[in-house]
Structure formats: structure tokens, C-alpha cells
Amino acid sequence: MMVDRRLRSWLAAVAGLALIVTACSAPATQAPTSNATSGPTSAPGTPQPTAAPGAKVVRVLAVAGPETDALIAHAGDFEKATGITASIEQVARPLWGQRKVRELIEDSGLYDVVMVGGGDDNAWLKYKAHATDLSTLLSADSLAQLINIDKFKTADGKLLGVPQYFNFPMLFYRKDLFADPAEQAAFKAKYGRDLAVPTTYDEMYEVAEFFTRPPDLYGFFIGGVDWSIFLDDTYFVYGHGGNYGDEKTGELTLNSDAHKAAFADLLRFSELNPPGAETQNFFDGDGLVKSGKVAMYQNWFYIWKTFQVEVPDKIGMAPLAGQGAHLGAFVATIPQGAPNKDNAVKFLDWMLSAEYQKAQALETGNLPVRTDVLNDPEVRNALVGIDDMEKVLPTLQYMQVSWSGELSAGVGEAIVKVLSGEMTPDQAADWLQNTKFAGRKAIE
């Protein structure tokens, strides 16, 4: 009966992903942010007026969340410095998906800057979108300081977008339990090694298994809905050194050894979940970890500031156990049809400036995208755990598929087949590659 309930829950999650995919041919899943809005929003389908050529305005399309809130809060600084008004429109995710396509594929020319998602939209941006090459437009200072700049360049050197910030998943764990002498002794007696933050998936499984003590404590959490249905898969795929496609060959890699191992990990770790996790998402996981119900989980480090404030002696943070991490960022692009490109370039240079990047890092807890700000003593002192976060930057990965919205729904179907017992992990990966997406290319 548990399998039946889990299957129904995962099927519902996949149906939700499918609805998102129909709204946009670009990727559907993005790094998490709040859905609260503050600032100008508009109803779906509402036509927006186009600023007159040469007007002192830059129109920005963004999705609702704290990072966009930071841009809005500091937009007055940009206007004071340049005389240009930044009209930043933040919209809900489904509408954001529609408008990204309208601006970057259909060339509607309503916005000067369009934010896209880093981890899922990057290949779509490089190979499908009609975006302006920024490599000769941005200031030398912006280009020299930008961390991971090559991840946003095409093979021929075009820079089609720049990140506003960096965010990515980390491993969160009950450091109070890890430091307990009784727990340490019991773990060593059972596994023959010291209880420590895991650095491999097998170590992580042993720790999660050790702390699974229903009904009071569960060793791990993998949410079954919303972004969790797909993002947990990305953690394991990238962690095993894989991807969903290969930009260089243009081929899908859905049945690679890495993806088969990822499906196997999803299965075994989900068995250590608390009851009801199949109907929850990682925001629910935040509460379970904070309340002491879950000993360990993988999640984006947006939650780190909350843990530091509310349970500073209970929760620790470390890099993921695997080899790579999902690149989380809003990436700013200038559509080829933008009506005020000069103003857009000035906005991006301001967004990448040391002054703004430092203020944003201190306010949001996200990592700055500039090397000098990352090394700023005030920033390093304020961002607790920055040494561990910095280690992850070189490992960041994005999906090397230009149609990741559709792909994410298909992966969700495969996960259902694994968790329900309909297929083994290997069979589900082969089904994705050879049946579900037979004949498809990674870059289309």
C-alpha cells in the first residue's frame, strides 16, 4: 500500500511538471526562491508598453524572489549613478517561462534585460535564444572579475549572459548529533569508522541509515513534489560525474553509468525518508531538519541563514558528497530585440559592480560573482561557511540539454517507475534514453 501511495504522489508531481512545461519550451525547474512578490507585477498575457528609443529607462524581466527584491531595493542607486530608471518587473514562474520565450525566441522587444535560470536555461540560452553577445560590451572590470565566466560562453567565445549571484545545493546535517560522544561510539562500533561528515554517497548512506530511528528521527529527506522531484536527481547525476547530455557531441546521456547510479541512490535514500515525504518538497524538509526530525539532507543554501539564526548549535553545512553541484543563479541577458541596449549594458555593469555585489551578498547570503568581492574581508566574515561554499564553485554544472523543461518531466516519470518498483534504476535510465526520448538530441 505504501508503494501505491508513493506512486500516486509521484504521478501527481510529474503531472505538475508537465503543466509547467506546456507554458514554456525553455526549462521549467530553477533554483528555489520565495514566491512572494514585492514590486511591479502583471497579469498573464497583459501587453506591456515599449519604452521609446533613447528613453532613460531599462526594462528588466525577472522572477519573484529575494534576489529580485535586492535588485529592486538598490535600483535607486543605479538611477542615481546613471540617470536611467530601472523598471524591474517580477512575475510568477509560469508567466516568466512564457515571457522568456517571447523575448528570446520570438523577438518581441518589450524588455531590455531578461533573467533566465543558470542551471537549466544555460544550454537553451547558448544554442536557441536570440541573445546579444556581451563579450565586447561589458566593462573590462566586469569581465575580469566575473567568476566562472567560461560557463556562460559559447564555443566561439560569445558571452550571452552573466550571473547575478551564485547559489547551489549543500549538505546540511545535525552537527549536534555528530558531536555526541555516545553517537560517535555507537557509529564506530557498527561501521568500524569514525562518525564524520560524509564525502562519498556510500558514507552518506551509512550515516543516514544509522540515524534512521522511526518515529522520532529519520536519516534523510528527499521531497517528492515541486522542484524536489527533479532537482534531487540532478544532485546525484552531477555528483556521480554525469550530465543529461553532451554539448560537444550533441547526444543525450540519460542511460550513463552516472544516471543509473543516481536513480539507485534516489531509491535507497528515499527509503530512509520520514512518512509523507513523497507528498512534500524541500521547503518541508527545511522544517523537518530544523525541528530535529531529519538528520541530514541536500538543499540549496538559501536556508543556511535561517538555520544560523534559529538553530545555530544544531545544524552544520558542508559540500555535497559528490563530484559536482547544480549551478543556481539568475542569469541576465540582453535580447537581440531589446529597445534600449545601451541602457541594458549599463544596468548589467552596475549589477556586476563591486558595490552592488557586496551589498547583495551581505543581504541575501548568496555568493557574489566577483572575485574581489568574494575575497572581501567583510563578506568572508559575514558569510559563515564561505570556505566550504567557495570549494563548490569550480564544480558547478548546468544541464547540457536545450529542452530541459520537457526532459525534467520525463525524468520525473522515470523516477516514478523506479520508486514504484515498475523498473530497476538501470531499466529506467535505458527507458529514458531508448524509448521516452528515442532519436532526440541534447541540443535541438
User: Count of helices?
Assistant: 19
Gross geometry: globular
Strand-residue proportion: 5-15%
Provide mean pLDDT, rounded.
89
- Numbering strands along the chain, what is their spatial order in the largest sheet? 2-1-3-11-4
- How far from one another are the termini? 41 Å
Low-confidence stretches: 1-5, 17-31, 33-52
How much helix, percentage-wise, in residues?
40-55%
> Helix/strand/pairing class, anyone?
alpha/beta
Give the beta-strand count: 12
Radius of gyration: 22 Å
The largest β sheet comes out as:
5 strands, mixed
Give a description of the structure.
- This protein is 45% helix and 11% strand.
- With 444 residues, it is α/β, with parallel strands linked by helices.
- The strands form four sheets. A five-stranded mixed sheet has the order 2-1-3-11-4, with helices on both faces.
- Helix 9 (228-239) packs across helix 10 and helix 18 packs antiparallel against helix 19.
- The radius of gyration is 22 Å and the shape is globular.
In short:
This protein is α/β, with parallel strands linked by helices and 444 residues long.
Helix and strand arrangement:
Elements: H1 2-23, E1 57-63, H2 66-82, E2 85-91, H3 93-104, E3 113-117, H4 118-127, H5 140-145, E4 162-163, E5 169-174, H6 175-178, H7 181-191, H8 201-210, H9 228-239, E6 245-246, E7 251-252, H10 257-270, H11 282-290, E8 296-300, H12 304-310, E9 315-318, E10 325-326, E11 330-333, H13 341-351, H14 354-364, H15 371-374, H16 377-382, H17 386-392, E12 396-397, H18 404-419, H19 425-436
Helix pairs in contact: 1-18, 2-14, 9-10, 10-19, 18-19
